[in-house]
């Protein structure tokens, strides 16, 4: 691909083309606008948005992950950037909060604690007229659930305030959010409407997760969320973010790896980490090794506070080899670029982030690409 050759990325109205141009250029992508109808200096439609051919993967990633209006509105209103922490008031939710507050202090984020209580089940066999009958008991159930959630949130926040007072958590202001609905749907809707910089979620240990494979809230969020997600295992003893020094980066050996590493560095800008590049491509042979070496040299030259190495595992015993690698190298963080998939692909070919979630017991950072 050549950076001096411009190609058409999209054709929009004038206003939309200008907005896209500003967004791309803010991410470092040069843009040229070209009228389809050169006789009209400000056409109602038909403005080509052209970019260098070599920047196409990065531009496509930006376009595919745009949340129209929400991010711009947040900047205009001066809203503080957020870290979202879904909680269920358990002890491992408290661990997730400690991790989220550490990220908040490092990145100047505002923590938002979110609890979603389940919508009561309604019998779908009601006759047509009955469907318009308001049962006061349903209203009472809803009110009781809401009151119980508010009380639990108050108690949970009192624990957080106590941890802050004792110096166990940073003294940072935070917000609380209580909502009714299906937890994963509410969480994902929030990330689409007001995208946080990061979502921090707690997970069960491997044995419990295996029993809860179907309907896991965390798995659904991982599969669909288009912002970084940091998962915290139940048995994780958190001290500081600096304790996460040995990481495995699951790479695809393509342009997406560069974008994912940029996201990681934004989250861990001042930490020193030893990163092992681990390819998950189906391709084998010297070509994979050559590309890995090129990728490793690129990372080493651009991210000098990190050290890089790579490892190629045999697919026939990948799981056993991976567990041995984790033990031998003292791996304490998994970094997983998470590609967007349609529903059918997610059902029949779940991503590696989904698989690792249910098989691993260490922190994992998934990065949308």
Describe this structure in words.
This protein is an alpha/beta fold and 369 residues long. 43% of the residues lie in helices and 20% in strands. The radius of gyration is 23 Å and the shape is globular. The strands form two sheets. Strands 6-5-4-7-8-13-12-9-10-11 form a ten-stranded mixed beta sheet, sandwiched between helices. The longest helix has 30 residues, at 136-165.
Shape: globular
In the predicted model, the low-confidence regions spanning at least 5 consecutive residues are 41-45, 67-78, 121-134, 205-215, 342-348
* Multimerization state: single chain
Structural class: alpha/beta
Instruction: Give the C-alpha Rg.
Output: 23 Å
- Main-sheet strand order equals 6-5-4-7-8-13-12-9-10-11
Overall average pLDDT: 78
Helix count from the secondary structure assignment: 13
End-to-end gap: 20 Å
The SSE order reads EHEEHHEHEHEHEHHEEHEHEHEHHE
Major sheet details: 10 strands, mixed
* Proportion of residues in β-strands: 15-25%
Q: What's the total number of strands?
A: 13
Q: What is the percent of helical residues?
A: 40-55%
Short description:
The protein is an alpha/beta fold and 369 residues long.
Write the layout of secondary structure elements.
Layout: E1 6-12, H1 14-26, E2 32-35, E3 47-52, H2 56-64, H3 70-76, E4 82-86, H4 91-107, E5 110-117, H5 136-165, E6 175-180, H6 183-193, E7 198-203, H7 206-211, H8 217-224, E8 229-233, E9 246-251, H9 255-267, E10 274-279, H10 286-302, E11 307-310, H11 318-329, E12 333-338, H12 343-348, H13 352-359, E13 364-368
Parallel strand pairs: 4-5, 4-7, 5-6, 7-8, 9-10, 9-12, 10-11, 12-13
Antiparallel strand pairs: 1-3, 2-3, 8-13
Helix pairs in contact: 6-8
